[in-house]
Amino acid sequence: MSRMDRYIGVVLFSFGLVICVKSFAYPFGSLRSPGAGFFPLFFSFLLMTLAMAIVVHTFLGENGKTTAVPFFAEKGGSQKVLFGILSLLAFRYTLPRIGLAPTTFLFVFFLGKYLAHYGWKANGALAVTAAALSYFIFQFLLKIPFPTGVFGF
Predict the structure, then answer these.
(1) What are the sequence ranges of the domains in the chain?
(2) Residues 6+ apart with CB under 8 A from 105
(3) Which residues, listed in sequence order, are joined to residue 34 by a DSSP beta bridge?
């Protein structure tokens, strides 16, 4: 790892420390009923731990001898990232119009088909399962009202 990784680790640790200090201004709550400060505190500790792992790893590494790895390891990687971002935008704007379950089905189906290259049967089963689980979790377990869309679910 390089010296830049060490600096990035220190910056991330500092960012986590600021979040940690700021989270004490909010009520912590409990594990059963978390308050507004619970998640920022938890994730700031996680961020600081991972940042320290980066810094320690830079000191224990092979004296900065690393091989450069391209950001997009495979051919067409940048197009896949762009397709993923556009899919998320499409999910966001079609959710109010056609509802949670159909939007989730289409999102998972297209990602599975064009990014992961699953077969039609496996991809369809995955998309149906994801749509059914998301509908069940948000509508019945969490009781979060989502737009029903044109299909009524």
Answers:
(1) 3-60, 77-141
(2) 127, 128, 130, 131
(3) 29
Query: Is the entire prediction scored with pTM above 0.70?
Result: no
Consecutive sets of 10 residues in the chain, 153 residues long: mean pLDDT of each?
82 95 91 88 95 89 61 76 92 92 94 89 95 91 83 71
Q: Is the dihedral of CA 51, 52, 54, 55 positive or negative?
A: positive
Check the CA dihedral 77-82-85-87 and report its sign.
negative
**DSSP assignment of 31-91, as one string?**
SSSB-TTHHHHHHHHHHHHHHHHHHHHHHHSSTT------SS-STTHHHHHHHHHHHHHHH
120, 142 Cβ separation under 8 angstroms: no
- What CA–CA distance (Å, rounded) separates 19 from 87? 31
Amino acid (one-letter) located at 47: L
